[in-house]
Each structure stands twice: as structure tokens, then as C-alpha cells.
Amino acid sequence: MSNIRYTKDHEYIRLDGDVGTVGITDYAQHQLGDVVFVELPSVGDAIVAGKQAAVVESVKAASEVYAPVSGEIVEVNSAIEAEPAVVNEDPVGKGWFVKLKITNPDEFAKLMDEDAYKAFVASMS
Amino acid sequence: MSNAHDHADSSPLLRTPLHALHVELGARMVPFGGYDMPVQYPKGIIAEHLHTRAAAGLFDVSHMGQAILAGPNVAAQLERLVPGELRDLAEHRTRYTQLLDDNGNILDDLMVTRLPPVKPGIERFFLVVNAGTKTADFAHIAARLPELELMPLADRALLALQGPQAVSVMARLFPGIEQMKFMSFGAADSKGGPIFITRSGYTGEDGFEISVQDSAAAAFARLLLDQPEVQPIGLGARDSLRLEAGLCLYGHDIDTTTTPIEAGLLWSISKRRRIEGGFPGDERVRLQIENGPPRKRIGLLPEGRAVAREGADITTPEGRIVGRVTSGGFSPSLGRPIAMGYVEQDFAKPGTPLALTVRNQHIPAIVTPMPFVPTNFYRG
After folding, report:
1. B307 and A33 in contact by Cβ < 8 A?
2. Spatial CA neighbour of B297 closest among B322, B326, B269
3. How far apart are CA B303 and CA B198, in angstroms?
4. Where residue B120 sits, what CATH number does that domain have?
5. CATH number, position B50
6. Does the distance separating the beta carbons of A36 and B307 come in below 8 Å?
7. Do B45 and B173 reside in the same domain of the chain?
8. Would you say residue B320 lies in a domain?
């Protein structure tokens, strides 16, 4: 069974035990265009579902990345701070943003699964 | 993720004659100046930008306004509306100037070319103005200069071919065109009707702007795209290219709250015109030349990678607001953010340490001369 869930704002979270890896989807990176800067939170920060977790800037605009679920930041991907283009090249792999220890598994369960997200993206075009 | 690309506008968008070609090429279309325009093609803004600096990029600028202004003494008449030197402008030569309001503020910036007279005593000028202002510009010119004939060329598309290899592409299609001087004009005949070509552009590169009849535009664009050096370039890269070149975007870096002197466009006003005036707001402009303007357009190099965009406050290192960013973005050529904006005169000197406010953080930035990237205009 898939351990990845999606938000309507095009973030994903992949759960491994009680640690979720958060990033933006391929659809999101494509919509943004070339990513030139990311601003990440600090390890230890508490973040709340639906609130800003990071900022991603493309050539054209800055966008907020929202936390799919609440939790505490346990790791940030400093590789994408040094090389933001990785977010375009491999958004759900090397281009992840943060890892967080989730506080409420129910929040994860309520998010869209792969099929629901695919249908959601298809409905947007 | 929030979407900063929302464009809520209910008015129907106009289309250029190249619209279907943009869609076919996979462009992402956005509203600009009332038109549905390509912001980027599949390769993306950075690749398009770097391609233009290295080879040749094709831009659809058909949304811009083209017109012929004809009649007796057009140069002297049009000088009543702009501070540029037109009386001394030779035939087939092009000049950059601004339409000013009665306070010396900028209604639009434009390119003006003197065409040969069709009959003695009747001068003709070819004008290219911005898309969003063209209706107002043409109404203003017609109202202020009723004795002249203003003929908007609504049935002509405008293409720009820009980059160091633009000239070899054009010379393949129009042998001898490599002889054209920068900021000069030529006309050619084609099966699709007369073509107007100026050696000019707005990217900081050598290049050409080519006016063709709507019906011939798509075929001509395809012919250019068939050349190995040429790729299609969207408005996103057009913006980053002109920002690197330190060029103003109307409605952002210049508008009806800025004079040419504040905007650093004194170079576009000849010595005679500075002395004689005779354009709207000439007294205010003269005083600003004499005493220095209260604020000036400057370039800024911010530290780090966060991008300070239009509207960001410019402060002293201590946090006092002394100005505002009017254009800011990521420079693909430099691999770092750059910005331009207006600051109080005392803070405009290159090397002055300032700061930019981005998401409530104060990012150190240094005032820097423009262009950010050396221009590569043809000077042969």
C-alpha cells in the first residue's frame, strides 16, 4: 500500500514510520518553471498543517509551500538550497524540502492518495 | 503550494497572428498588455534566456503598437510631445524617446524612426509603442497634433530576433543586411508584402525588429525558427534579458510618476533639447537636470539567492525606507538575483550599502551601475 499522500496545493508527503518527507509535486514544479531559490525552516521548528513550511521561488514568482500535516522539522534538504534546479529535475526524489515528525496521523490519512491526486490534477486542465 | 500566477481578468484577451504557432510550440500562455502571450516554451525561461545571449531568440512582440505619423514638419511637431532629438534624426535612423505628460512624467516610452518622405514637404515617422498604452498613446498624439496624420498599423505583426547570431540568420535571408547600423531602418519587399526592419531590440543584444503584415507573420516566424540558431523565446526571458541590460519596463520602472531624469534617461535627451526645451514638463525636467532629481533609478545586487521583486522596500542598513524596487528577478547570466528601483538621491551612488525587505527579512544589497550584464550592441 502506498505511503504517499497529496494536498490540493500540490505538496506531497511520503510517510516512513512517523517521519514524513515533504516536497512539491511534478505538476507543481512544472507550473512554477525554473526554481531559483528555496527558503527552508530550521530543524526543531514546529509547523502546522496548512501553514507555510517553506518558500519556493521560480524566475517568475515566489510561492509558499504549505505543510501537509503538523509536526516538528527533523531534517531539511540543504542540497536544494545550494542547487534549486534539483526541485525541477527530481521533485519527488532528490528535490524534497523537509522531513518532519508527524504529530497527528489522522491528518495524513485525510489527504489524497495517488489516484485521487491524479484525478484532481486531470480535473484542473 | 500557493499559486502566484493567478491572472483574474474577465476581459477577452486579444491574440497576435502567431497565437496558434505559440500553442503548437507548447508555450504557456498568459495575459500581457491585453493579449494572450507566451510567457515561456517547454525549455523554460532560464534556457531561453541563455540561448538568446549565446545564439538567437525569436520573440513575438506583435502586441506592441505600430503607427506611421505623417505631415509637414513631423519632427518639429512630435518634438512638442517628446524630449528626444528628432529634427537631427537622419532618414532611416531610429531613436528611443518618451511621450511626456505636462508635468514631465512618462506616458510611454517608444522607438521613433524617420522614413524617407513620399513627397516633398511631407515627413514620415514610424513609431513603435508599448502594448498596454498604445490606444492612449495614439489618442494623445492625434489630439495634440491634429494637423498631422496618424495611421496605426493594426494589420502588422512585429517579431524580434535577438542575440549575437541574429545577424548571420538575417543575412542568410536578406543578403547585405549585416551592413545595417545599430538603430537604423530598412524596408524589403516579400511575397507577403513590405517588411520593415530595424536593427534594434530590448535585450541588450544585437538584433532586429521585423514588422510584417499579419497574413505573412506565421510563415515568416516559421522561416526564422527553421534556422538552426533560432529558438522561440517567451515574455519571461524577455523580462530577465531587459532587466540584465538595465532597460526600463513601462508600467513598472517608468510611468506617470517618474520623469526621464529620475529614470536615468538623460542620455536620450540631446544637448539642444535640454537647452531649448519645448516638450511637456520641460521646466521641471530642466530643474531636475540642474539640481539633480529627488530620487533616482538605480541597480541593486542583493546578497544571497532570495529574489527581491517589484514592490519590495529599499532601506538603509539601519532599516529606514529610502525607496522601492520596481523590477527584480533572478539573472540567469549571473546566476544570482538582481533588482532595480528608485531611491532618494543621497543613496543612489554606486557602492552604497542598502537593504531589501523580502518576507520581513532585510537582505543586504549594494547599489551597482547598470547594465548588470555588458550590452552587446552592434557598433560596426
Report:
1. no
2. B326
3. 38
4. 3.30.70.1400
5. 3.30.1360.120
6. yes
7. yes
8. yes
Contact, B204 vs B237, CB < 8 A?
Answer: no
Helix-strand-coil split of chain B, %, nearest 5: 25, 35, 45
Question: Does B92 share its domain with B212?
Answer: no
Domain that holds residue B203: 19-60+155-244
Q: Tabulate helix, strand, coil % of chain A (nearest 5).
A: 25, 35, 40
Q: CA of B72 to nearest chain A CA: how many angstroms apart?
A: 46
Complex ipTM, two decimals? 0.88
Assess whether B132 and B117 both reside in one domain.
Answer: yes
Domain count, chain A: 1
Indicate which of A9, A31, A34, A63 best probes the interface with B, i.e. most B CBs within 10 Å of its own CB. Answer: A34
Chain B contact present for A64, CB below 8 A: yes
pLDDT in tens, chain B (380 residues): 665 444 455 679 999 999 999 999 999 999 999 999 999 999 999 999 999 999 999 999 999 999 999 999 999 999 999 999 999 999 999 999 999 999 999 999 999 999 999 889 899 999 999 999 999 999 999 999 999 999 999 999 999 999 999 999 999 999 999 999 999 999 988 888 999 999 999 999 999 999 999 999 999 999 999 999 999 999 999 999 999 999 999 999 999 999 999 999 999 999 999 999 999 999 999 999 999 999 999 999 999 999 999 999 999 999 999 999 999 999 999 999 999 999 999 999 999 999 999 999 999 999 999 999 999 999 87
State whether B287 and B339 are in the same domain. Answer: yes
